[in-house]
């Protein structure tokens, strides 16, 4: 990998992990009281739990798409959003966050060992670079929503 690609991968990794121009996922959910995970503020369509699960499902889908040319994505939109507003228990919450972190680490590994510009087999022109940008954009958008909901619930710094 040449220096330009190493620099690009380094910057994409920072973007995916968050914390530069926007808060990262870990910060957004840190210290959130369990009883607020399923709270749906007035006039909003979802809870923090539903946003966390949506991030997990979408990121998992993007990761698998990059790895398996036969991957079948969930049905949009119903299979990308959980119906229940709250996790069943602390274990479900923790497992969702753990999968988000693990899948992100796995995707960063792909970034580090792939041709960023080569089309992904089974896709319609997508590249690892495009998927990295989409994943970062999607996650940061919903992390911002998590923080906004926390503010509405009086549970943010």
TrEMBL record:
Boundaries of every DinB-like domain copy: 22-146
InterPro entries on file: DinB-like, DinB/YfiT-like
Name listed for the protein in its UniProt record: DinB superfamily protein
């Amino acid at each position: 990998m040449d220096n330009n690609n190493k620099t690009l991968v380094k910057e994409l990794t920072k973007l995916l992990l968050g914390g530069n121009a926007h808060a990262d996922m870990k910060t957004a959910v840190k210290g959130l009281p369990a009883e607020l995970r399923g709270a749906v503020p007035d006039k909003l369509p979802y809870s923090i739990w539903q946003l966390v699960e949506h991030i997990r499902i979408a990121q998992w889908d993007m990761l698998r798409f990059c790895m398996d040319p036969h991957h079948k994505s969930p049905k949009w939109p119903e299979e990308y959003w959980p119906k229940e507003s709250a996790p069943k228990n602390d274990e479900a919450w923790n497992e969702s966050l753990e999968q988000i972190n693990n899948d992100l680490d796995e995707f960063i590994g792909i970034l580090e060992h792939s041709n960023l510009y080569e089309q992904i087999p089974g896709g319609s022109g997508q590249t690892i670079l495009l998927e990295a940008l989409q994943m970062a954009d999607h996650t940061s958008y919903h992390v911002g929503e998590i923080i906004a909901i926390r503010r509405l619930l009086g549970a943010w710094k």
